[in-house]
């Protein structure tokens, strides 16, 4: 553990580096932070902090910068809980009111507002249909030969498909079939809808077998389409504004990863707890983001984890604000999803 003086010096260095992206020396700390100790004493303490692994000294500078270990200690032990400003809260609430009209827009706009407020890359994973609960299926007449089959989950996610119907099937028949399916499946998770149950329902409405098969095909397709998470990105151009990413090759590698949806899903570490998770530098399991930090949290509907929101940026990110934004957005997103339930 670090004594109080080392803590104050380490916090001053990290706060300054987050703000300026420039290595800091003992004289600058003494001048800017009024710690009541001489530059010589600060210099000795900085040497100790470097020896302990909390600071690093770039070859081109006499100043020090934080190490990944220093950032970890900062996040775990030095950082005071931050609150969003009234302006940020007003911006977020106004953004959703003016931008979001449908549930599928919630996730895309969440990614945009996260990147705008934090000035870093944002990643938002939308719920999978298979993680949700069956709410109802409905047949909507399109013309004399076709109907639209609409499948709705408890989170408001919707799948639909146009299917042909036999000529002898009436609208009343369609309503009966939908009623029978809904009676048996409403409230069940999609993962728990097994083939044996579908066969039971099929036997109950065997006279409409062709149409029933089409309805079941939609269920199968809905599960297949959403077997992988949909991921939304925001603020990828923000990387270019960070001094850490002036290396073109480094940016290309990172942007390449951000274009791979499957990799993004793997990067997001789905945790069971409801807290904010911070991973710093080498703690990230993918080598291409080992120069980055990520702050993430899972969001819930009715107590069930359905997705993840995250901010990815340089290790020099403004941790206090980013964590506060993630925590606020995590709660706000759950409220929005409940609001937009169909």
> Whole-number average pLDDT?
82
Q: CATH topology of the largest domain, what is it called?
A: Beta-Lactamase
Distance between the termini: 53 Å
- What does the radius of gyration come to? 26 Å
List the helices and strands in order: HHHEEHHHEEEEHHHEHHEEEH
Shape: elongated
Percent helix, as a range, is 40-55%
Quick structural overview:
This protein has 342 residues and is an alpha+beta fold.
What does this structure look like?
α1 (4-20) packs across α3 (39-51), α2 packs across α3 (39-51) and α5 runs antiparallel to α6. The chain is built from 12 helices and 10 strands. β9 (292-301) and β10 (304-314) form a beta hairpin. It folds into 3 domains: 4-78, Winged helix-like DNA-binding domain superfamily/Winged helix DNA-binding domain (Arc Repressor Mutant, subunit A, Orthogonal Bundle), CATH 1.10.10; 86-127 and 229-339, GAF domain (Beta-Lactamase); 130-225, Heat-inducible transcription repressor hrca homolog, domain 3 (Enolase-like, domain 1). The protein has 342 residues and is α+β, with helices and mostly antiparallel strands. The protein has helices at residues 4-20, 26-33, 39-51, 68-78, 86-99, 103-118, 171-185, 195-204, 209-225, 248-258, 261-267, 319-339, and strands at residues 55-56, 65-66, 121-125, 134-141, 146-153, 158-164, 231-234, 277-280, 292-301, 304-314. The longest helix is centred in the last third of the chain and has 21 residues, at 319-339. The model has no long low-confidence stretch (mean pLDDT 82).
Provide key terms for this protein.
5-stranded antiparallel beta sheet; 3-stranded antiparallel beta sheet; 3 domains; 12 helices; elongated; 342 residues; Enolase-like, domain 1; Arc Repressor Mutant, subunit A; alpha+beta; Beta-Lactamase
């Amino acid at each position: 553990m670090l004594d109080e003086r080392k803590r104050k010096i380490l916090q001053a260095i990290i706060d300054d580096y987050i703000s300026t992206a420039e290595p800091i020396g003992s004289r600058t700390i003494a001048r800017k932070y009024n710690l009541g100790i001489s530059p010589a004493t600060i210099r000795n303490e900085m040497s100790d902090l470097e020896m302990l692994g909390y600071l690093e000294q770039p070859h081109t500078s006499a100043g020090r910068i934080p190490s990944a270990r220093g950032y970890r200690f900062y996040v775990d032990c030095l950082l005071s809980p931050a609150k969003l400003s009234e302006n940020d809260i007003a911006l977020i609430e106004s953004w959703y009111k003016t931008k979001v009209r449908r549930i599928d827009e919630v996730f895309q706009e969440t990614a945009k507002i996260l990147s705008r407020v934090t000035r870093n890359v944002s990643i938002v994973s939308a719920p999978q249909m298979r993680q949700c609960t069956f709410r109802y299926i409905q047949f909507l007449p399109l013309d004399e030969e076709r109907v639209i089959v609409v499948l709705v989950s408890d989170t408001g996610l919707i799948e639909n498909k146009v299917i042909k119907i036999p000529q002898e099937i009436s609208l009343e028949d369609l309503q009966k079939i939908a009623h029978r399916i809904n009676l048996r499946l409403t409230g069940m998770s999609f993962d728990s809808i097994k083939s044996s149950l579908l066969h039971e329902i099929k036997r109950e409405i065997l006279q409409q077998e062709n149409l029933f098969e089409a309805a079941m095909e939609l269920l199968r397709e809905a599960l297949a389409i959403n077997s992988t998470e949909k991921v939304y990105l925001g603020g990828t151009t923000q990387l270019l504004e960070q001094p850490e990413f002036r290396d073109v090759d480094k940016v290309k590698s990172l942007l390449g990863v951000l274009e791979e949806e499957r990799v993004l899903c793997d990067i997001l570490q789905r945790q069971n707890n409801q807290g904010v998770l911070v991973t710093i530098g080498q703690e990230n399991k993918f080598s291409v983001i080992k120069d980055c930090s990520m702050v993430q949290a899972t969001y819930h509907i009715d107590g069930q984890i359905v997705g993840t929101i995250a901010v990815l940026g340089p290790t020099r990110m403004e941790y206090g604000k980013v964590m506060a934004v993630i925590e606020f957005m995590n709660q706000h997103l759950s409220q929005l999803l409940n609001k937009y339930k169909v």
